[in-house]
Amino acid sequence: MEDEVDRLVAAWRRERPDLDVGPLEVLSRVSRLARHLDRARRQAFSEHSLEPWEFDVLTALRRAGAPYQLSPGQLLTQTLVTSGTMTNRIDRLAKKGLVERLPDPNDRRGVLVRLTEEGRDRADSSLAELLEQERAILAELSPAQQAELANLLRQLTAPFDNVSG
Fold it and tell me: What are the boundaries of the signal sequence (predicted)?
């Protein structure tokens, strides 16, 4: 079975035999797969009237468990955006009725962001749709191959995830 990356690599080997283009065989496929995954994610979220960033915030709150609330700082850590961006996102989600701000009982100046019932329903339904899309992407691989691929990708991504800053 040949794919577009095989053709790309063959062309570079022909045109630039002086270069080791081996990394393209893996990383070009990862890049192409990321684009397909991005399309699948956007489709899954749009069916539930969510943007990808909205899904990220809602599911961070959902994963927190009952009562489905976090401080804005905790949301920052989980979504990797600036505090100004997070404030804007919380405002927009609150306007849509998907989250609410509550006073933090442990900090008089602090607030907590809590999922509303509608926010929880949207997080749950869009996650189910996303997982259906992702299962379709992985359908050509056996469960053992999926586990092997997950382990290999973990080895590649862990150093990036463990970099502070």
Answer: none
